[in-house]
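go over my protein:
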Amino acid sequence: MSDPGGSAASRSGGDGSAELARPGWRRLLRERALGVWTRGAFEPLTAEQLDILTTAFGPLLQDVVAIVEAFALGARVTVGAGGELPPGVATRLDLLLNSFDAIADEQTARLQLDRATQSHVIQSDLWQVLHKVRESAELSYARERDLIELDRRILMMLQTAGPMAPADISSAVGVDKAQVSRSVKRLLELGVAERDQLRSPLRLTIAGEGLSSRLLRLAELRNRELTFDISDEELESFSDTIELLVDRAVALYDQERELAAQVPARADGEADGDAETRNFERRIEGQLVIDRKRIVPSLMTLLSYFARSGGLAFKRLTGLSRFEAFVMSEVGRSAPVDWSTLVNSLHRDHSQASRTLNALMERRLITRSGRPGRRHGRFSLTDAGQELFAIIQQAGNDRSTFLMAPLERDRRVRFLAIFDKIRRNASAQLERERAFAEFEQH
């Protein structure tokens, strides 16, 4: 799920790079030079022009515009005004604009770095990409065998890593033992996995090896699509960074588990915290092994550990569950928000969203205004809700800062640039699978 506090820009669904680069700055500066050369006067920049140029040049905007204007005035004095710029003047203008590329590139890198330290951008972006990958995977893998995502992950892991105990599987995929146990039971019933005793390592049957081999071949094809236009050197760098981030995410999770253990038990005998998180006990000998051959498993493991620590953190700081904190964040960022917009941003079924929203309204953290009926209203945070929203946002900033702290500036920029390519490829992959599914239905 998306992390509470993710930025609106990160949830727009675009690849992000176009928003940062804004290549229109070159056209705007050329038009401004032509205007000054023709009329000999400076016209104020419009709000849209100012926004594009500020995005491109940041604090150096005034200097860049002044240089272009001075060049145009000089050309006017030297060759006189006219309609179009003379070829020689136009060539020198292009050379001048080319010299600004380095400034624009540096500003783009700075904005990309800022994205990495904004509240929850990393987890929010990860969730968006994996949501698209999962949807396209359900469409793609269903043509081979109708298994849920976790079943497929376990099958392919057993094929590549060999027999594994359920506890080791749970740690490797970042999923609680209860979910892994249910998946193992399904695989045993399907006859694609087997084990000697209840806690013995799980291994593939002959049928399971055949199925997992086919799934791995399909996974390899999908991985090639996700890594299109990404060099081997970039993939190696990306994997190195993911390994480091997974270590940081695991450290965050361990830290939150220790803090949760210090919380007194409730009257019903349970400690505070999400049930699935309490059931998830990490048992790892040494470090987690990252699958460098495929992009998705490592991203899923990173997101899982980071999201679980977030669930514990938000419970500890606000008393809210992970999904309740998510709903509070979505309402807080978009208030007043209508029902349809809210449900679409949550990516949950209406019944779950409705139950959570009603519970938060009963606790007087969210209020509804407008026409009677949930679907006609618009939702906002109460004063008490605003206080918890501020806590959630600050916790998100602190967690994101901790996660990204070991990455020096250049490494962050490279990581985000590669991630943007993966985001773009995931969108294209999903659109293709949707088109295939629609074609098959007809």
Summary: Residues 5-22, 116-121, 265-287 have pLDDT under 50 and may be disordered.
